[in-house]
Amino acid sequence: MLLRQLEYLVALARERHFGRAAQACHVSQPSLSAAIRTLERELDTPLVHRGRRFGGLTPEGERVLRWAHRMLAERDALLADLAEMRHGLTGTLRIGAIPTALTAVSLLTAPFCERHPHARVALHSLSSRDIVHELAEFELDLALTYLDGEPLGPVRRLPVYEEHYLLLAPDDSELSRAGSATWAQAAAVPLCLLSERMRNRRILDGIFAASGVTVAPAIETDSVAALYAHVATRTWYSVISHAWLHMFGVPAGMRVLRLRDTPQAPRIGLVLPRRDPEPMLARAFTESTRQIDVRGELERLAEHHLGS
Length: 308
Description:
47% of the residues lie in helices and 21% in strands. The protein is α/β, with parallel strands linked by helices. It has three domains: 3-68, Winged helix-like DNA-binding domain superfamily/Winged helix DNA-binding domain (Arc Repressor Mutant, subunit A), CATH 1.10.10.10; 88-162 and 266-296, Periplasmic binding protein-like II (D-Maltodextrin-Binding Protein, domain 2, 3-Layer(aba) Sandwich); 165-259, D-Maltodextrin-Binding Protein, domain 2, CATH 3.40.190.290. The protein is elongated.
């Protein structure tokens, strides 16, 4: 069995088309098909449902695919380890991040890249559920996501900060003049929130419910940037994570307010698959993260805007 055969199987599962998989691997379609057939003969089991077009992987193929992801990830870790011995840290670190934490990722990646100028970072915006899947399939090296509330599987966790919630309101509104708001008051104003399929929104819905109210946002979106674009019109209010202030700040004519009686804040942190030995890039990133006071930086920023 050759690693190249496993690469072809991974590409076929990803592209779900022999021609596109061959193109992604820079080989001809007959070469890719022949390599996968050879792999099937060596393993003495069918891996692919074949017909006039790709019909998916067999159950055995799905099992081999999981092993292929693991074996290729170990190959990449070995190459990165050897390259680090020769030239310093090199290679590409694959990071997944939930959309609500993307605004804070640069606080981690910028110092890492400064310390390791030959390393590259591939950053992917993913839902918390997709992150769990891609970590398990070794398609990510690590991720920044919620540490509580959803099963993460066999991973190591490194807390980075807690997500605090603020109400973004027009500065000439009654709530702005009051200087703070309850969750019940926030539910009564025209809201723009993230969509229900996102973990941030599910957390907010739980807090609203604990306060005895439900919300029916006028605008829902799966993009923090789109949320800010709507709130900047001063037509809608929003409940935001304080981490978003790092990238977006406070739109002109708006103000951030404390939300009173907020329960314990959800934790955001790095999660890494349990692997031995730990890949050099992932280990270097966690070591870099431990030296950064992300929690303090975000809390100081929030206090600055609240004071303004």
